[in-house]
Structures are given as C-alpha cells and as structure tokens.
Amino acid sequence: MNKRDCVLYVDIKMSEEDILDLIHKKYGGKRSYYYVDCNWAIFDIESNDAYSWIKKRRKDDGFLYFKYMIAVESKIEESFNLFVSNLRDFIAILKQKGGQVVPACDFEDELNITGR
Question: Along the 116 residues of the chain, how does pLDDT read in single tens digits?
C-alpha cells in the first residue's frame, strides 16, 4: 500500500453491489464486479473474512471485524489535498447512509473523522 492509499473498514447495511453502485453514480468511471475506477481513485471492495457481529462491538479494535474493507488507491499525483477531500466526502456519504467507517492510512487524521 502506497502512502497515498487508504483502507476503509465499513459496517453498513448495504450489499457490495449497492456500495459499488453508489460509488459509480457519484464519481463515474469504469465499474466492474469488485471495483470502480474513477478519475481520482480506484475503489476495490471486499467482504471482510474476519467479520464478526459480536467482535465488531469491541471499543478498541472492533472496526477490524466490520463487514467490508474498501481499498482506495489514489490516482491523483499532483493534488493529494483533492484526494483527501474527495475521500472525506465519500466517508460522509457512507455515514449518511447509516454506516460506520474507520479509515486505516498514514493520513487518517487529515480525514477529520470523529467517532464511528
């Protein structure tokens, strides 16, 4: 994983298909069964093999047991701030849909995420 990339641990009552449709409708680009490749990022979603409806409630490491992991790979070389801004907006959309999102990346503090 490159320093500009991020993994989002996501727990939401949506299918992988619905999440990919949401990404594709919002950002466009090429959509396949497992990913969306838009002009600023590649979103690759997978079910979390470690998913546990019991363990996801843990206070410190519960996010490791969320339902999905979405790897977000930056395609913007010249403007890292734009990537962070777009990623922050995407996280807000997932939260508006009732999701819990925890980013795991070198710049997670820049995403201004509070709570889960």
Answer: 567 899 999 999 999 999 999 999 999 999 999 999 999 999 999 999 999 999 999 999 999 999 999 999 998 877 888 999 999 999 999 999 999 999 999 998 888 665 44
Helices (H), the chain: 16-27, 80-96
Q: What is the mean pLDDT of the chain?
A: 92
89 within some domain: yes
Please answer whether residues 67 and 45 qualify as being in contact, where contact means their C-beta atoms are separated by less than 8 angstroms: no
Assign residue 71 the CATH number of its domain. Answer: 3.30.310
Tokens standing for residue 41:
């990022």
Q: Domain tally for the chain?
A: 1
Instruction: Based on DSSP, count helices (H) and strands (E) in the chain, helices before strands.
Output: 2, 6
Residue 114 CA to residue 116 CA, distance in Å, equals: 7
Q: Whole domain around residue 82: which residue ranges?
A: 6-111
> Is there a domain that residue 58 lies in?
yes
- Indicate the pTM of the whole model: 0.91
31 within a domain of the structure (yes/no): yes
